[in-house]
Write a structure and sequence with these properties.
Length: 305
């Protein structure tokens, strides 16, 4: 559906994107992560043809992105940029209507779609507001609504969760889920790793222009998080108990926080041995659970490489 092959983009002496290759499948929600200045926005600008690569090829559906087919690409893609470029002097309705016209949508269809989108983003009561009177979050919702006006099959969103309240983040998350259910393909960048972990099936991490990882969210989390269990003890741990647990040959480390223990196992299959060891030594616990790890820890490990 979307493919980058050995893509490089340089700005004078800065190589913003360095020989990057990855692909995104139809219906995927794909997270494109990396620290500030890593090359995420540059990649996205390349994807939608706003920039041309110095080297490599980009494919959107059946099109190889080049200067000549930008019109075809724009029909397929809806996008959101850090600075969405809304027409400040137009009303909310007219902003959407104007974009609908650009994409050649009939007046009747435009009216129908705009009403649905305003409803989806709870902007109905601001339909006739001039855009410079909108709050930042409303503007953000309008920009996302606008990306959907031509019912594109690919959505590319740069920082969709940035600077908005938790309710709006939830609305956008639900919209993204619904779009994926309709087989739309979604790429998003974000520094909200918890949100990304919740919604993205696959993830790529770019650091200083180079792609460091590209895999399913699950694989990335398990690759970079050591197997670990959390144990809630009935009583505080005595010094002897602590020494005893540390002497178990199947554990590789332990963090002791009052009556809560984080125990790193050499293999997650050793959880049975741990339970038996605790019972045998009369160390009473009220809860024990696997900690599958999180994207934030994995991301921190990747971004340091
Ligand atoms: N038009 C430009 N001219 C010169 N350098 C640029 C230009 N656009 C981006 N860069 C440089 O390319 C690198 C990657 O920038 P980019 O905006 O792609 O990063 P990013 O991953 O989106 O970062 P952030 O998380 O801060 O948004 C940076 O070093 C940036 O300064
Ligand atoms: Mg950026």
């Amino acid at each position: 559906m979307i493919k980058l092959v050995n893509v490089t983009k340089k700005f004078r002496n800065i190589t913003a994107v360095n020989n990057v290759t990855f692909s995104v499948n139809k219906g995927d929600i794909f997270g494109y992560l990396g620290p500030n200045g890593a090359g995420k926005t540059t990649t996205i600008r390349l994807l939608v043809g706003l920039l041309m690569p110095n080297k490599g090829d980009i494919f959107i559906k059946d099109h190889r992105v080049n200067k000549k087919n930008l019109k075809d690409i724009k029909k397929e893609v809806g996008f959101l940029f850090e600075n969405p470029g809304i027409y400040e002097q137009l009303t909310v309705y007219d902003n959407l209507d104007y974009f609908g016209q650009i994409y050649g949508i009939t007046k009747k269809k435009r009216r129908y779609r705009i009403d649905r989108l305003l409803e989806l983003f709870t902007l109905q009561d601001r339909k006739n507001s001039i855009c410079y009177t909108l709050s930042k979050g409303m503007r953000h919702k309008l920009a996302i609504a606008r990306s959907l006006i031509h019912d594109p099959s690919i959505l590319i969103y740069d920082e969709p969760f940035s600077g908005i309240d938790p309710e709006t983040q939830e609305t956008i998350r639900n919209v993204i889920f619904d779009l994926a259910k309709k087989d739309k393909t979604i790429i998003l960048t974000s520094h909200h790793l918890y949100k990304i972990q919740q919604i993205c099936r696959r993830i790529a991490v770019i650091v200083r222009g180079r792609l460091k990882e590209c895999d399913t969210t699950e694989n990335i989390i398990s690759k970079y998080n050591k197997p670990c269990v959390e144990v809630v003890l009935q009583n505080f741990l005595t010094v002897e108990d602590k020494k005893l647990i540390q002497s178990f040959d199947f554990i590789s480390g332990m963090i002791d926080d009052s009556n809560k223990l984080k125990i790193y196992l050499k293999s997650i299959n050793d959880i049975d041995k741990l339970i038996k060891g605790l019972i045998k030594n009369r160390i009473k616990f009220v809860e024990i659970k696997k900690n599958v790890g999180n994207l934030e820890d994995a991301y921190m490990s990747i971004s340091k490489t």
